[in-house]
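Internal tracking record. Fields below are filled automatically when a chain is submitted to the structure queue. Please do not edit lines marked as system-generated. If the sequence contains nonstandard residues, flag them in the REMARKS field before resubmitting.
Queue: standard
Priority: normal
Entity type: single polypeptide chain
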Amino acid sequence: MDIRIRASFLPHDDPEAALAFYRDVLGFEVRGDVGRDGMRWITVGPAGPGGTSVVLSPAGEDPGLLLATPDLDAVFERLQARAEVIQEPIEQPYGIRDCAFLDPAGNVIRVQELR
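SYSTEM-GENERATED OUTPUT FOLLOWS
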């Protein structure tokens, strides 16, 4: 199985201040900016294609772990017999196809399809 770490999550309590720090101070590029129900998730990372991202997420949100693979269906097929499925592969409204499982401690593990 080809699985890699896709993103690390850091909580924020002020999305504009977080964005200014990671974009303007560290020089990271903005890879995504998604809002829902008054909350905002901002994905940033070093300039250039690929690599691991940092997702600036609303404080109090428990994002779990975000992994990625070029073959989501194969990974889902393998893991569904070994882990509790909480979401089968679907196309999300923000353009990512993913699925989700729980690890033995109840942590959410999301797996995105690399494109």
